[in-house]
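Students often ask why we bother encoding 3D structure as a string. The short answer is that it lets us treat folding as translation between two languages. Here is a chain of 451 residues written in the first language.
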Amino acid sequence: MEITEKSSEGLKREYSIIVGAAEIEGKVTTRLTEVGQQVRLPGFRPGKVPMNLLKKRFGESVRGEVLESTIQESTQKALEEKALKPAIQPKVDLVSFEEGEDLEFSVELELLPDIELGDMSSLKIEKLVAKPGDDQVNEALGKMAENNKASKPTDEKRVAALGDVVVMDFVGTVDGEEFEGGKADDFKLELGSGRFIPGFEEQLVGLEPDSQNDVKVTFPEDYHSSDLAGKEAVFSVSLKGLEVIDTPDVDGEFAKSMGFDDLAALTEAVTKQIGSDYDYLSRMKIKRELLDQLSDLHTFEVPPAMLEMEFNNIWQQVEKAKESDQLDPEDVGKSDDKLKADYNTIAERRVRLGLLLSDIGQKNNLQVPPEEISQAIAREASRFPGQEQSVVSYYQSNPQAVEQVRAPLFEDKVIDFLLELAQVTEKEVSPDTLIEEAGGTETDGPVPSAS
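And here it is in the second language, the structure alphabet:
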């Protein structure tokens, strides 16, 4: 095999590879012999079919097999001989492949950059620590109670008011014709919830139970059904009854309804959950600062093809956001050229940091044990009750999906490794300060488990 470098520019390389005709023909003959041991042709015993007949019947397909396998093997051998680390799959172009002649093809590739790691002990990170107070815990308990509120019939003889739940039958029409999805019986609606078309709920306020009324509304111009968008509709509403909202008291009975022994156990679980949420926010802030400093500490060229792929992924999301009017407020009004320039910078940073974290992990032999990947897959499967085995089977048969699970686990190990080397100082702050500086918003988080 003959390898010739045709071009070298930055991280880009192009090679010409020639495999001698004798080697190709030897592989073709070997493969045809294997075929001859397996096939059955009239008048010949297995293994006794003449080579010229095998060439006539199977020569073309065998040469195709040999071409594919030889290109793969030769490309891999060239990479090993030249100690090349491609950033993406090399591009192969066939130059010539004629019977009795040499095989010639070209290989274009982009290399992973050689990264000289900086002094990680120079990294300075401030870790914000916040502890949940009584106000935060009580607010979370209140939200839990609010989320578990229910409605119950009332014996009061009065008209419907905001905050009531009305029980009704309704039929909607446009131009006198009923439309799909515009009819329901015994439907419960909390007045003031904003669940229905603007103007609908307001017209039910002040109505008496056991009354029949027409509610006139106009569908919004951006309504999800184009057949109804912007059109006027009339709903014939039969108001059958009223119910009032009952929000449970945060007490021992409520705690038991949530699966806990008593209120103290529920309060402890909520406190731990909020603490975990704060730890997560602190971790995200630490990670962002660490990545910023890593980026400033290292300068190297990124493979153009990797940059292009990352940018294209980002730009697809930007275009979808534009189509659905969900573009980031900071990007509204920018030209496409400006947006592309901004997101190209973001894409380059992502690629650079990805390569950097990967390099740090490899050079320090950081790995994700198989059991951690299995645990992560099991957690993902648990999100789909009744379909757990199907989810696990999907990952077992899809290496790319497994890699999507492994990647964040690997990244966390690299971050933890760097934090051990960095100069980390702790600073106790209020929850509001943590949330503000972490650049996120406080979430209710999952309801804690009693187990």
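Translate back mentally: The chain is about 45% helix and 20% strand. Keep this in mind for the problem set.
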